[in-house]
Amino acid sequence: GDEFAIILHGVAVPADAAVLAQRVIAAVAPAFHVGGDEVHVGVSIGIVLFGAAAAHDEPARLLRCGDLALYRAKAEGRNRFHFFESDMEVRLRARKSLERDLRLALGRDELYLQYQPQFDIKSGIMCGVEALIRWRHPVHGEIAPSAFITIAEESSLIMPLGDWVLNRACAQAKLWPDLTIAVNLSPVQVRHKQFPHMVERILAKTGLPAVRLELEITEGVLLRDGGATLPSLRRLAGHGVKIAMDDFGTGYSSLAYLLRFPFTKLKIDRCFITGLEGDSSSAAIVQAILALGRGLNMRVTAEGIETERQFDLLSRAGCDEAQGYWLAKPMSALSISKILACGPMRTQLGVWRA
Length: 354
Hints:
The chain is an alpha/beta fold.
């Protein structure tokens, strides 16, 4: 494969191993040529010292500990080395335990969705909701999505998890006439060859009109594998599914993406909304994104609104949609249904704030 082990004798201090690791990285770095093409190869190195892997230094354990250090080197950007640390095994065991529990959670009704309302700024009426996954662990209680989504992406769980979220969200949205349902997508999901088929199957099964489904993707999806994801997104957009770029402004924000991909909405990242009240740079970026959205005929949503002042500034600037804790926190499907049952006047912003 592409993994190799080096046994280094006569190491007096850890720095001796570090020197060798730096030499290996430097030796592999220069480009070489294959069939007239210039090829670049990088190397990441994990280092474990005999005696550092607790009391048992069997070869298998040493290699496993070296692997843990190697994974850390890769996670920190590759083309570097990292020494094994004892807490790596503790974290690995915790991660494996969480992965096992997540597999079980899919069949134990431990996962559930909350829905955060999105409002049309001009009318003040709720126009959609964003579906947010939650996990109520029987032992550890509520576990943040940031703690288990990455595990799902790195294992084989992201597709069944994504299927469950989309299925549940679309089925629920079918009961809410006229509301758009927004669902966040993992880069791993979007790149999967079965992704467009999964969306089409769920829309057919739930009966939700495609135009009421909004799929949110980040720029990271496009940076990693834009060419492969473009046909899938265009296919779904052809059915009427809306495609939103989430966290706009925090990545490369290449304007070429906005021309190539079938986006219908831009979501301004909350970091710019937070800075609206006292940072002229944030205000300028927000104004630029709003102008870009108008020029490309895309709706623009501001997320993370936490004060009335932020909302007023966005309203005067001509933002289309608003989302944030000042307006409404994520809530259960039952809460959304009860409010909608009271009629459209109950969805005015003043009532939600109260």
